[in-house]
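Provenance

Sequences were taken from public entries as deposited. Structures were produced by running a predictor on each sequence independently, with no templates supplied. The record for DUF951 domain-containing protein from Paenibacillus montaniterrae is shown for reference.
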Amino acid sequence: MERKQFELGDIVQMKKVHPCGSNEMIVIRMGMDIRMKCAGCGHSILLPRAKFEKNMKKVIGKSELTDGWKED
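Predicted structure for DUF951 domain-containing protein:
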């Protein structure tokens, strides 16, 4: 199976909806684990890469907040 392509700062659509009602997340850190921030409420979530790739539907686009921002 082909690996899904995504980059730092991408807005991705997830299969499961976050409790705030949004299913869009912004990738803010990549490595063995993926840290993402909910586009709806700003909550930060850390998932193992395998689980993230399994639960990611598609890449929606690039976040405009990627230049010069820091992780909380």
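The mean pLDDT is 85.
The helical segments are 49-55.
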